[in-house]
Amino acid sequence: MKRIFGFVLACTLLSIPALAASNSQTVNLPSAVQVGSTQLPAGDYKVTWTGTSDSAQVTFTKKGVPPVTVPAKVVKQKHDHTGVTTNTNGDKDVLQVILLDSVSLVL
Q1: Which sign, positive or negative, has the C-alpha torsion 27, 37, 89, 104?
Q2: What is the rounded distance in angstroms from the CA atom of residue 81 to the CA atom of residue 104?
Q3: 61, burial (CB in 10 Å: exposed 0-12, middle 13-18, buried 19+)
Q4: Rounded CA gap, 52 and 59, in Å?
Q5: b or e along 14-26 (b: 16 or more beta carbons within 10 Å of the residue's beta carbon)?
Q6: How far is the C-alpha of 88 from the C-alpha of 47, rounded, in Å?
Q7: Which residue has the higher pLDDT, 30 or 3?
Q8: How far is CA 54 from the centre of its chain?
């Protein structure tokens, strides 16, 4: 019984990183953008999302920049390329949508 429990525990722990990797992708922000109340500088960011549909949380991480988490809506869509859509609000570009391989993240 202990062997079976140990095997199940090991399989579960090994599968967690694989599941997390499916909800993350790298995106390039070509210029500084406003994300929530935070201004992110241009660069490549790892974008990770948790949740589905209207209740998702998106986290932007980059070395040397504190992580930023904002609410978002996940829309399953296939895209030929990754990219971002921004909207100018005053003198700031505000991030609106992130286009990834199989989803759009609407902020």
Answers
A1: positive
A2: 11
A3: middle
A4: 14
A5: eeeeeeeeebebe
A6: 22
A7: 30
A8: 14
Contact 64, 81 (CB under 8 A): no
Report residue 24 as tokens: 């993350």
Six token digits for residue 88 = 């100018």
Q: What is the pLDDT of residues 52-91, one digit of tens each?
A: 888 899 999 999 999 999 999 999 999 999 999 999 999 9
Burial class (CB in 10 A: 0-12, 13-18, 19+), 5: exposed
Where are the chain's structural domains?
Answer: 24-106
**Taking Cα atoms as reference points, which of 45, 29, 26, 25 lies closest to residue 85?**
29
